Amino acid sequence: MPKPPPLPETTPDGRCVFCAIAAGDAPASFVHEDDEFVGIVDLRPVTTGHLLVLPRAHHEDLAALPPEAGARMFTIAQRLAAAVRRTDLRCDGINLFLADGRAAGQEILHVHLHVIPRHPQDGFVLDADWRIRDRAELAAVAEKVRAAR
């Protein structure tokens, strides 16, 4: 099956589409609203019940999101995941997925967290080279990350 066309990143007047949704100026099906965040049903769901949690304020990526807001975004996602499990929607598990940057699959440059209900054979796959790495290689990576904190 061919990949669907990319979602529009901006509204016809040039605004970030997620900013417009968060402001109530573009359509969405809301599952959560507060002063800082909204939760919506994904327009192109991986599975039925696929949700997005996004800040009302525009932050392009995870690095731009204040740490307190990032923690709150995950707390909201955790509550929404529990709510999905309490519905009659098919849900044998949940993935929380955040694509940070184009190379990671981020299509709309407004940070957002996916809450994806999972079940066997749902079609969502992360296909990677999961081989065990050499301990020296892992230690070198750890050192680089510690030094960059």
Automatic annotation (TrEMBL):
InterPro entries: Histidine_triad_CS, Histidine_triad_HIT, HIT-like, HIT-like_sf. A motif (Histidine triad motif) lies at residues 110-114. GO terms for biological process: nucleotide metabolic process. GO terms for molecular function: catalytic activity. It holds the Pfam family HIT. The active site is at H112. Residues 17-125 form the HIT domain. PANTHER family: ADENOSINE 5'-MONOPHOSPHORAMIDASE HNT1 (PTHR46648:SF1), HIT FAMILY PROTEIN 1 (PTHR46648). This is HIT family protein.
